[in-house]
Write a structure and sequence with these properties.
- The chain is of the alpha+beta class.
- It has one domain.
- It has two helices and three strands.
- It has a three-stranded antiparallel β-sheet, with helices on one face.
- Helix 1 packs antiparallel against helix 2.
């Protein structure tokens, strides 16, 4: 009788812990992508540089940008901030999201109703 209460609880803890760890991977991937765009030389395709960095960060999970459930969007924003005065700067934003509902990384063990549909993260940085 006790196993009917303890086992589902253990599976729920494992599933949520894995989702939190994966969310941290998404966060790190978005930060790596925007960092790559921020330090890219002038004239470089910022989106390609960002997506390559996201791909490298997510390779342990076997995921690539815009293939399967992982979606990446890069956006250049002009006049996103001021540089300590009247000088406006440009920024680059990377949005990374994973459709967890349609492609869960672990079996959900009946927890699908309380799990998030999408895991996502955004990062923004000033570019040259």
């Amino acid at each position: 009788m006790l196993c009917f209460l303890v086992l589902p609880l253990i599976f729920a803890i494992i599933t949520y812990a894995y989702i939190l760890a994966f969310r941290q991977s998404l966060s790190q991937a978005a930060a790596e992508g925007v960092r790559a765009a921020a330090v890219a030389p002038t004239g470089t395709d910022l989106e390609q540089a960002a997506f390559d960095a996201v791909d490298a960060a997510m390779q342990d999970h076997g995921l690539k940008c815009n293939e399967g459930a992982l979606t990446c969007v890069g956006t250049t924003m002009s006049d996103c901030a001021t540089n300590g005065g009247d000088l406006a700067v440009s920024c680059y934003k990377v949005d990374v999201s994973y459709d967890y509902k349609d492609d869960p990384l672990l079996p959900t063990f009946g927890l699908g109703i309380v799990l998030p549909d999408t895991l996502s993260y955004s990062a923004t940085a000033e570019v040259n």
